[in-house]
Amino acid sequence: MSDTAGGTGGASPGTAEPAGTAPAAAPPDRRPGLRERKKQRTRDALLRAALELFTTQGYERTTVDEIAEAVDVSQRTFFRYFAGKEDAALFLPRLSESHFIDAVRQRPPHEAPLEALRRAVLESWDTIGEAIEAVVPIELHMRTYQLIESTPALLAAHLRRSEEIEEEIARLIAEREGLDVDADPRPRVAVAVFGGVMRVAGRRWGAGGDTSVAAIRELTAGYLDHLGPALARKWDTRAD
């Protein structure tokens, strides 16, 4: 469901971590030291250079050496921050996914599962901008989503991650509702339906010309608004 869950709190720009892992946020009462801030700036510069190159000349045609050269660091430095090109390309979508999961976790318990998911994803689009802008311009982040949709290797990795996110969300929904996720199919069914809607919305947005947050939020809301009628009502009205 991470196609549009920008969809998607959780991780935030922090210090360098082992390649392939999201950075942990610094404790609120401790300002990062000079060394940590330098590492963060290097990571952010590498990430921005990678996304600029990926979205302008293509993911497959961009090399790690080009990314490192754009920041005037060594290839070895790049691999201190990222496991590879794929890790860099999917770094911010993973941050967005963490943000979405946190939004679901914080929804009030009286909301029905699908309503909680709907409100969480729209809230994510309303609030993710600040976290993303701390690293790269938001328009570059949105162009990266289109890159993922049009790059088979990235899309496959992104969809694999989406399956993991759906399982995590299903377990979270089951916990909210006091259910055993392995005994009651409803949490996984609801999340699978929701995830399918998100992927359709993401593909339609990716094929369009408007890459703004407002555009994907509006499209996502419109598709989710049709979820209930699409499942509960008869569509063919010719005989009415």
What is this structure's SSE topology?
Blueprint: H1 34-57, H2 64-71, H3 75-81, H4 85-89, H5 91-105, H6 113-127, H7 129-133, H8 138-150, H9 152-177, H10 186-206, H11 213-225, H12 227-232
Helix pairs in contact: 1-2, 1-8, 5-6, 5-9, 6-10, 6-11, 8-9, 8-10, 9-10, 10-11
What does the model show?
The protein has 240 residues and is mostly helical. 66% of the residues lie in helices and 0% in strands. It has twelve helices and no strands. The longest helix is centred in the C-terminal third of the chain and has 26 residues, at 152-177.
Structural class: mainly alpha
The residue-averaged pLDDT reads 83
Largest sheet: none
Distance between the termini: 36 Å
Helical content stands at: 55-70%
**Counting H and I runs of at least 4 residues, what is the number of helices?**
12
Shape: globular
Rg from alpha-carbon coordinates: 19 Å
The sequence of SSEs as H and E is HHHHHHHHHHHH
Strand content: under 5%
Total strands: the figure is 0
Uncertain stretches: 4-28
Quickly list its features:
single chain, 240 residues, mainly alpha, 66% helix, 0% strand
Produce a short descriptive summary.
By secondary structure, the chain is mostly helical.
